[in-house]
């Protein structure tokens, strides 16, 4: 079995960094590169693209809301077309930087609040997916299973790849437990190993209330801003290896 391991990367700005991007790039098969709004900037974006190229890692755009102070996790009252242009601005910037380095952007992954806003509004999801398809119909869109983004992407003919979040708890309905609530982040090694092993062998995950739910995903996400994210990624990668699965970038696995 082939599986993708991805992380949101390049989310610092100026001299500030969230994690060791160089080390993380050696562990993942796909990198979701911040495009300058919630994090990142042109120099960082170029450095991430070059690192991905050096390590054979798939390159993806990771656009968010223009809110550095809130790290793109606070919703903002933009009109649908305003949000569309902000997404396109960021996607276009990364495509240009990647093209200048002789590589292509292969996938797309919304960041935090921007993704939440799109995911609960079918009309907005259609607007965004149509815009992405107009730019590059070959882009793979990272999704959560049965989400509005997944449905809209499929309506417009974009390929998708479902995510399993190794470092976040799920509720019995398969939704993420809100950050800030007890148990929302999963960081201890035994729990992460058990979750990843169960996902790889059975395609399921234990929800925060003990319910076992299906997890039809082919990509595992580790957030780079989770404390200890580099070690978490090493743990996930070791479980992938033990299971007999092999790593592959998103573009090779999407359907």
Short description:
The model has no long low-confidence stretch (mean pLDDT 96).
Your description of this structure?
By secondary structure, the protein is an alpha/beta fold. The chain is 41% helix and 17% strand. The protein has 9 helices and 10 strands. Catalyzes the cleavage of 5-oxoproline to form L-glutamate coupled to the hydrolysis of ATP to ADP and inorganic phosphate. It is an enzyme of class 3 (hydrolase).
Helix content: 40-55%
Name the structural class: alpha/beta
Classify the beta-strand content into a percent band. 15-25%
> Largest beta sheet: what is the strand line-up?
1-2-3-4-5-6-9
Summarize the helix and strand pattern as letters: EHEHEHEHHEHEHEEEHEH
Shape: globular
Terminal Cα span: 15 Å
Compute the average pLDDT.
Answer: 96
- Count of helical stretches: 9
Give Rg in angstroms.
17 Å
Protein name: 5-oxoprolinase subunit A
Catalytic activity: 5-oxo-L-proline + ATP + 2 H2O = L-glutamate + ADP + phosphate + H(+)
Keywords: ATP-binding, Hydrolase, Nucleotide-binding
Function: Catalyzes the cleavage of 5-oxoproline to form L-glutamate coupled to the hydrolysis of ATP to ADP and inorganic phosphate.
């Amino acid at each position: 079995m082939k599986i993708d391991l991805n992380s949101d990367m390049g989310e610092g700005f100026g001299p500030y960094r969230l994690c060791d991007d160089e080390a993380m790039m050696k562990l993942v098969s796909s990198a979701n590169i911040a495009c300058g709004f919630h994090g990142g900037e042109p120099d960082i974006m170029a450095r991430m693209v070059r690192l991905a190229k050096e390590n054979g890692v798939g390159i993806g755009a990771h656009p968010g809301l223009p809110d550095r102070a809130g790290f793109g996790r606070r919703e903002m009252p933009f009109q649908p077309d305003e949000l569309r242009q902000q997404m396109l601005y960021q996607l276009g910037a990364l495509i240009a930087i990647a093209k200048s380095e002789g590589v292509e952007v292969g996938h797309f992954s919304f960041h935090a609040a921007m993704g939440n806003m799109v995911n609960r509004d079918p009309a907005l999801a259609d607007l965004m997916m149509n815009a992405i398809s107009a730019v590059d119909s070959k882009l793979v869109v990272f999704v959560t299973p049965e989400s509005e983004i997944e449905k809209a992407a499929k309506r417009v003919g974009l390929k998708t790849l479902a995510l399993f979040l190794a470092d976040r708890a799920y509720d019995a309905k398969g939704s993420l437990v809100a950050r800030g609530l007890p148990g929302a982040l999963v960081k201890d090694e035994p729990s992460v190993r058990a979750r990843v092993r169960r996902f790889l062998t059975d395609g399921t995950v234990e929800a925060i209330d003990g319910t076992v739910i299906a997890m039809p995903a082919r990509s595992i996400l580790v957030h780079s801003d989770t404390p200890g994210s580099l070690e978490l990624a090493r743990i996930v990668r070791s479980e992938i290896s033990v299971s007999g699965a092999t790593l592959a970038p998103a573009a090779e696995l999407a359907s």
